[in-house]
Amino acid sequence: MGYSNLREALVYAYRRWAGEKRLLDEQISKIEAAQLTLEEKRRRAAECDKLIESADNILAEIWDGWDPAKAKPAQRYEGTLPFEHGDVTRWTLDIMRRAPDPMRALHIAKQLVTEQGRDVTDKAFVREVGRAVDGTLRSMAKRNYVEKTDDTPVRWRIVGRAGDETA
Q1: Residue 75 — left, alpha, or beta (φ > 0 → left; ψ -120 to 50 → alpha)?
Q2: Beta-ladder partners of 147
Q3: What residues does 103 pair with on adjacent strands?
Q4: Under 8 Å CB-to-CB from 85, ≥6 apart: which residues?
Q5: How confident is the model at residue 167, as a pLDDT?
């Protein structure tokens, strides 16, 4: 009985240590990768300081009420998809124009991924593209470019297409 308890405890400890080692290796890799870009980031931060100071001087000169404390810092949106800005919208509309019937956002995403030569079996990537397509469709619906035709599941069509009752 003693051997089995020892063996189980040792296996359990081994697994914990192996998991911790893997996590530490991943963290070390991330830190080393960040270290490689440190000098570049320092140079860019110094450049931003100069740009901020210059803009502050100019704004103070041309605007009596300029208060830099009221200017809230903003960050540029960095998309996570490997596509250029606007590509998902353009491709979504292209797919919808070719489709004879209204389509679900997920089906549009799968077709988009396939047409771009990406791996359609990568469920996480297809889901991310699906979220982008859904956001694009909802944004275009606010501007009356597309509309929903069913509530469940939601299907989309371009406004004014054949079969549209409102046209």
Answers
A1: beta
A2: 157
A3: 156
A4: 79
A5: 41
Q: What are phi and psi of 43, to 5 degrees?
A: -60, -45
d(CA 30, CA 37): 11
Q: For the chain, what is the HEC assignment?
A: CHHHHHHHHHHHHHHHHHHHHHHHHHHHHHHHHHHHCHHHHHHHHHHHHHHHHHHHHHHHHHCCCCCHHHCCCCCCCCCCCCCCCCHHHHHHHHHHHHCCCCECHHHHHHHHHHHCCCCCCCHHHHHHHHHHHHHHHHHHHHCCCEEEEECCCCEEEECCCCCCCCC
pLDDT, block means (10 residues), the chain with 167 residues:
80 89 92 88 93 93 91 79 90 94 94 94 92 94 90 87 51
